[in-house]
Design a protein that fits this description.
Shape: flat
Order of helices and strands: HHHHHEEEHHHH
CATH class of the largest domain: Mainly Alpha
Number of helices: 9
């Protein structure tokens, strides 16, 4: 699945020598406390005796020493580095992800397509007879929870199928059930389930890379004939 996601982007693999590629080393190592005799060892001590009556030591001032250790500095630096990487990654991929998420047609274009569709026009002209539909802002909506727009037969349907199944921003080649769940929350047309199923069946990357979830057929064994034959 990661391979399919990576294929969505135009990238180049660049080798970085280990000495100059210290960031993955930071991310793969947990900070380790220094030795006990380290001069920078952290001391956060409060003079307090659990075996002696507190009143006997009440006149003694508490000794508190807090020194930031090299381990703490390393943790702080690592967190800063991770934050910088996250910001850089987010900035560099933000444009591609947002483009994948956008549907390249507007509500006005969908309204126009509905007005040119005989099925939609029949419902719009007799809306009271069709309890499964409502009209909202001149847009024919299917009465679901929440209501979603009806998509007439057009390139809009193909675009929706492609975006919600093929693009990395929407999961990149999820199976039938997940793709149906994504689309039905946003759009509706009568043959939607059938169209989604056929689209996924014809998806070449899914056929090539999706693992088989059924056991391979077993080998046939000869059946012994009844005795006496």
């Amino acid at each position: 699945r990661w391979r399919l996601k990576i294929l969505e982007y135009d990238f180049k693999v660049k080798y970085i020598p280990g000495l100059t590629n210290s960031m993955p080393d930071y991310l793969s190592r947990s900070p380790v406390d220094d030795a006990e005799e380290d001069p920078d060892e952290s001391l956060h001590l409060i003079s307090k005796s659990t075996q002696t009556d507190i009143s006997n030591v009440s006149n003694h001032s508490s000794i508190v020493t807090a020194v930031q250790t090299r381990a703490m500095k390393l943790r702080h630096q690592t967190l800063n580095d991770i934050t910088d990487i996250s910001k850089l990654t987010s900035d560099s991929l933000n444009t591609s992800v947002e483009e994948n998420r956008k549907i390249p047609f507007s509500a006005e274009e969908l309204i126009q397509a509905q007005q040119n569709d005989n099925y939609a026009k029949n419902i719009l002209n007799n809306i009271k007879k069709h309890k499964n539909y409502i009209i909202k802002d001149n847009l024919l909506m299917h009465r679901s929870n929440p209501p979603v727009p009806y998509v007439p037969p057009s390139d809009f349907r193909k675009t929706i199928l492609r975006i919600y199944h093929d693009t990395a921003a929407n999961g990149a080649h999820f199976g039938r059930d997940k793709t149906i769940h994504k689309i039905k929350q946003r759009y509706f047309w009568p043959s939607m389930y059938k169209d989604i199923n056929n689209y996924i069946k014809s998806c070449i990357p899914c056929a090539q890379f999706n693992p088989r979830r059924q056991k391979n057929p077993g080998t046939l064994r000869p059946i012994k004939p009844p005795e006496g034959l």
